Amino acid sequence: MPDETSELLQGTLDLLILKTLALRPMHGWGIAQRIAQTSGEVLQVQQGSLYPALHRMENQGWIRASWGTSENNRRAKFYELTAPGRRRLAEETESWRRLAAAVGRVLRTA
Amino acid sequence: MSGPGALAVLRGIAGRLRGLLSRRRLERELDAELSHHLELEAARLAAAGVQRDEARRRALVAFGGVEQIKEACRDERGAAWLESLARDLRWTARWLARSPVFTLTALAVLALGLGATTAVVSLVHGILLEPLPFADPERLVALWESNPERGWERSNASGANLLDWRRRVRAFDDVTAHGFVHGWALAGGGEPERVEGVEVLGNFLAVLGVEPAAGALLDPEAHWQDRERTVVIGHDLWQRRFAGAGDVIGRRVELDGVAHTVVGVAPAGFSYPFGGLDVWVPYAWPRSVVDEVWFRRAHFLRGLARLAPGASPERAGEELSAVAAALAGEYPETNRGYGAGLTPLHEWTVGEVRRPLLVLLAAVSLLLLVTCANVAHLLLARASTRGRELAVRGALGASRGRLAVQLACESAVLALLGGGLGLGLASLLVRLGAGRAATLLPRADRVAVDLPVVAVAFGLTLATALLVGLLPALRLSRRSTAEALVSSARWATAGAGLARGRGLLVAAEVAVAIVLVAGAALAARSFAALAAVDPGFAPRATLIASFHLPPARYPETSGVLAFERELLARVRALPGVESAALASSLPLQGSRWTSDFRVRGVAEPGIDFNRRVISPGYFATMRAPRLRGRAFDAGDDERGRPVVIVNELLARRHFGDRDPIGELLAFGREADEGSVWREIVGVAANERIDGLAAPERIEILVPLGQETLDGSGPIRTHTLVARAASGDAAALLPEVSRVLRDLDPELPFETVGTLADLVADASLRERLLMQVLGAFAVLALALALVGLYGLVAYSVAQERREIGIRLALGAPRAGVVRAVLGRGMALVGLGLAVGLALTLGLGRLLDSLLYGVRADDAPTLAAAAAAVAAAALAASFLPARRAARVEPVETLRAD
Q: The complex's ipTM?
């Protein structure tokens, strides 16, 4: 597995997960797949970071979990965004945009 | 933090708590969730064309360590530290239960050390540290008079002097006083009973700042005869006799036949200045007494004062001395040579026991150190067998920190359990000991295992846990995992550091043991020396019982003397009584009545002799040897010729080589026409008046009845001495009591005992010191020996291979044993050296408590060291012998 994703900060992973769940509820594997696909296979989330992050965010109340049946007919844990989670997504997206713009400005000068 | 942020934190905490509660369900879900992911990943790879098993394998590999992920999730979910603590505790409990011998031993040792220390801490706290139960106790001082010429240092004050101090010393807010404890017959409100109390000035309780539980305090002028007779009763008496009823105020009761009105009740638990007081009775002096000479001459009051605001004790002391000097000039006949001074009340009350208590505290602290070392030793011993277990756990992912926490948890649990047991032991010791030592210790009623003591005990327990657990934890966490997992041979060399730690611990234990053993040996010699002192009489088989004839019911001298003689005659007639006598006081009971005398024809007066009144038959009953002359007989009464017996010291000091028999002396400093000249008819051996070790005093003995010849009243308090023919003193008591009851049903004995008890009490302090230090010494030595035994056994077991090799190479068995022994004894030697140095250093603390032996007495210290060395040799020899029995072939074959 490529190594670039090991430098993904915790806050950034949270943001990616929140965004992914903003579309529709998903289980852990699905979230990882979606992030990989959407980023063009650049961002490969490790299970070792994904699941602890999911559990943490569930604790903090930004996502909610429920048990349902998955596509391979097994019981799976689905996560969905809560209202505070939506607000958090908006805040974090705004912060990210500001950060990216700032970094870009610095890189553009000499 | 932003609003949502704070909420998130709270929700996080709630989530963690929930996580703690529903752990099992969450475990199942976590399992399901992760295995579902694995399945999907394997399915994806299979769909991409990878073979089923290969797909599964790859999925697993990509997944990473399942357990670690689970752990990380659990960390995010639950209150991780709380869970791991609970896990550690469960593990510790299982580990402790698995080796009951070790656990029980460690707990027993800890309980002993912590329990003994807590008991002594409660002593020190209750007696030395707790403030006196009065308002502003630091402003209270004790007042005393001194007379260097007579050798009086801090003695009672006389009534007239005290009242003058009260008027003249401005640095005192108020001055009060109390007398000695004695008993009254209380009647009214129930059956007549005997109560103990103390005579006081009216303002006594007010000066102390005591709040009454009911009613009011005494009238400040209550000690004058023209005031109403009042009394303050104790809380216990109020409860048991008057059922705690409020109507006790204003009630009239009779004390020794004299009516008193109860004006107040003392607060619960209050009993100053002696324990077990039921009544505080004001004196009843006529106003004219201040002009009487005896009032200024008789020193019978213990003075107390409260300092005025802003006055320092030093300034007050100076002013008091100045006033005393002025009084000495105004009343030369009575006050010449007398000075006065003050001591802060707390110091006055506990000053005498401060040194012994501190010695005790030092000794018990040493004992606690030994128990800590011993348990640390035990833990280290176990640690050396757990190396592998901990290494495996380290390999499985437990960080060094976690392992250290686990070890700390173990020693903390041990210490807490041991501390809890120790607290129970301390309560028991305090309850048992308080009774025995109550006569020796001031404020013994305040000694209890209460909150501050428990707090200190808890602190000690934690410190113990730290001490005990630190060493093993350090040792273990330092060794690397890989090293520990390798073969046992490598293991043995890694254990050398452990062995050195244990060796030092054993040396430390030996050092402390020798200090305590030496202390106990010195205390034992001190006690033996004191017990060997000849009391001057034969103490066995003799009953003593004291009584007091109250003036209210025996107003006339003739009545008092008739009663006393009749009592003596009837007791003598009893079949079990070999001989009996009366005495106003006995040897070892202290000087009761001192005054001056003049010898006919000698210019200088003799001062400060101890006067005792004895009946005929005293010397025969006491079996006290006389030197020369004759004893008193029945003809020496108030009608016969005035006679006296003097003691050896008086004869030597005042007559030199001349024979005093036949000489005349009179009491009083000045001899005038009114003096009664008494003939010396006998010279008795010096009795030990003030104590077995106290310096001797000059003494004059007066026959029963002749004390009244110069106009003073008869002695009303006597001690009956009855020697039993059968050898059993206690058997006499019922019959002797019956004799007294027949003569006067309302008069009981005030104190009852035996002469043997009197002698034993005189060495009580030395005996207790010996017993307590002895107990500590035995404990410490036993622990040190056990530690030494364990260490030698351990090193023999560890070195089986080396020993086997050496034996195979031809070394003599004796040599091997000697080598093992030598190492053990080297440690013991180190411990002895350090311990002896400590002993010499601490010896100064003990010096003032010893009789007849110095704290640096070389033979005693040498004997103690030799005893400890011999015991240590035996303790190391037993396991060392096993080294000799090692079969080289076996050890070389085994791993």
A: 0.84
